[in-house]
């Protein structure tokens, strides 16, 4: 059997997406998904998404990490599947859809940038050396004066596999405050490597930057290795609402995959 796939990227965070409204694709096949995401023997991606039907919302987003396992929320994946849904004609420029962490709103602006509303954040741990919070996925956030000097893969892997985080895993973000926003590098669990951008990690980093700088409301421009994004928010103490992740979501190519 062959199935059609579409490749999208959001600031270098890349995904294989399948229109699964007829549920022909087996989302429980871990080995299949991992093989598709493999960069040497498959299509290659940071993750795979299935767009499925829902009786009350425009669609359902199912997200799988590159290791083939169904995962927590992916912010850039959410933005890319919104762009894909519009390409299919499932939505116009606005949508509400269901993901693993609940219902999300999204708007595609006149420039084609996708604005994705994230879930509210009510708890942020700040122990002085690092922050820890959940923005749909768990994130460790550490600030540094020069993140270009950090070995993101090795240091990120050490944190992700440390005694506290080994069982469930965590994404690890290194953040630098800049004159015009923040710079963020992320090691992602499930991919087990650095990615060029991580939407939930960039969101988490911007919220922590708001706490660190005392910013109550507004936005942070964010520089990732794969491109520019933006996070806006409202803050009351360590609680955040009206969190929006904005950035590009670009179609790359499509094709077919032979599935045994």
List the SSEs and their pairings:
Layout lengths: L1 E9 L2 E7 L10 H8 L9 E6 L7 E6 L9 H14 L5 E6 L2 E7 L5 E4 L6 E3 L4 E4 L3 E6 L8 H9 L10 E8 L2 E8 L4 E3 L3 H15 L3 E8 L2 E10 L2 E9 L2 E9 L2
Parallel strand pairs: 2-3, 10-11, 12-14
Antiparallel strand pairs: 1-2, 1-17, 3-4, 5-6, 6-7, 7-16, 8-9, 9-10, 11-12, 12-13, 14-15, 15-16
Second CATH tier, the architecture of the largest domain: Roll
- As a percent range, the share of helical residues equals 10-25%
Overall geometry = globular
Structural class: alpha+beta
Highest CATH level, the class of the largest domain = Alpha Beta
In total, how many domains does the architecture comprise? Answer: 2
Low-confidence stretches: none
Q: Give me the number of helical elements.
A: 4
Which homologous superfamily in CATH is the superfamily of the largest domain?
Diaminopimelate Epimerase, Chain A, domain 1
The residue-averaged pLDDT reads 97
Largest sheet: 12 strands, mixed
Under CATH, the topology of the largest domain is which?
Diaminopimelate Epimerase, Chain A, domain 1
Overall radius of gyration: 17 Å
Element string (H = helix, E = strand): EEHEEHEEEEEEHEEEHEEEE
What key phrases describe this protein's structure?
single chain; Diaminopimelate Epimerase, Chain A, domain 1; 260 residues; globular; 18% helix; 12-stranded mixed β-sheet; alpha+beta; cytoplasm; 4 helices; lysine biosynthesis; 5-stranded mixed β-sheet
């Amino acid at each position: 059997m062959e199935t059609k796939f579409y490749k999208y990227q959001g600031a270098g965070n890349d995904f294989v997406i399948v229109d699964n409204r007829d549920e022909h694709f087996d989302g429980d096949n871990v080995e299949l998904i991992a093989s598709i995401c493999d960069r040497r023997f498959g299509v290659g991606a940071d993750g795979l998404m299935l767009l499925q039907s829902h009786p009350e919302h425009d669609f359902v987003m199912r997200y799988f990490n590159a290791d083939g396992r169904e995962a927590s929320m992916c912010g850039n994946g959410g933005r890319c599947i919104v762009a894909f849904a519009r390409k299919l004609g499932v939505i116009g420029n606005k949508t509400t859809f269901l993901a693993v962490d609940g219902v999300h709103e999204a708007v595609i602006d006149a420039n084609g940038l996708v604005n994705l509303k994230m879930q509210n954040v009510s708890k942020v741990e700040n122990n002085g050396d690092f922050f820890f919070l959940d923005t749909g996925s768990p994130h460790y956030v550490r600030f540094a004066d020069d993140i270009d000097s950090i070995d993101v893969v090795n240091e990120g892997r050490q944190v992700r596999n440390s005694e506290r985080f080994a069982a469930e895993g965590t994404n690890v973000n290194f953040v630098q405050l800049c004159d015009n926003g923040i710079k963020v590098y992320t090691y992602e669990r499930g991919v087990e490597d650095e990615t060029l951008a991580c939407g939930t990690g960039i969101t988490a980093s911007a919220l922590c930057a708001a706490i660190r700088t005392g910013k109550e409301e507004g936005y942070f421009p964010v520089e990732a290795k794969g491109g520019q994004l933006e996070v806006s928010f409202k803050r009351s103490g360590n609680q955040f609402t009206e969190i929006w992740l904005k950035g590009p979501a670009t179609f790359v190519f499509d094709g077919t995959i032979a599935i045994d």
